[in-house]
Amino acid sequence: MRRTMTALLAIGALAVPALAQDPVSISPIGFGPELTEKADEYGQRELDYLANEMREDLERELSGMLGENGLRLEVTILDATPNRPTMEQMAARGLHQSSISIGGASLEARLLDASGTELETFAYSWRSHNIQDVVGYSRWTDARRAMDRFADDIGESLSERYRSGS
User: N or C terminus of the chain with fewer C-beta within 10 Å?
Assistant: First the structure.
């Protein structure tokens, strides 16, 4: 009887983590209303660049967890500000590429199960604190830093979910 109970508990323990090991797929990266309003100012190419960078960061952080028919991660770049003018801004406003500004990004994400039930939400926002820190930065340095940190936070959370089986 004792062996039977131990075997049943062991089988049950193996089954629980398997439920938490559902693969994660990344939905197309979305844009929030604030960033969408800036699409003409920044240029669609820049928004595509940001979405691609966000996807690459997530794929790197979730590399062992990616797959289809499991959990779905929906990410939205709410807002982003470049450290240097985009090509569209330089053409439309006459800004020079050496112009600098405080940049950053605000992001959010939702983790959904296969039925669409929200399991977890994520949010992150980061901006430079001082214009003096921006010297030497490229166009999207601060936004990329925010996206990288956001992807890292999501990766840590999902890794913990996998480890704990919940």
Answer: N
Residues 116-124, mean pLDDT to the nearest whole number? 97
Both tokens of 156, joined, read: 């840590």
- By the 10 Å C-beta count (0-12 exposed, 13-18 middle, 19+ buried), 154 is classed as buried
Q: Could you give the C-alpha distances from 116 to 67, 103, 137, in angstroms and in order?
A: 16, 34, 40
Q: CB within 8 A of 7, min separation 6: which ones?
A: none
Query: Which helix H or strand E contains 132, and what residues bound it?
Result: none
pTM of whole model > 0.85?
A: no
Please identify which residue in the block is written with the tokens 């600098």: 100
- Measure the CA–CA gap between 129 and 124, rounded to whole angstroms: 16
Contact predicate 114/69, CB 8 Å: yes
Residue among 75, 73, 67 at smallest CA distance from 147:
75
More confident residue, 142 or 162: 142
CA angle, 164 as apex, 158 and 166 as ends, to 5°?
A: 75
d(CA 85, CA 112): 36
Backbone dihedral region for residue 94 (phi beyond 0: left; psi -120 to 50: alpha; all else: beta): left
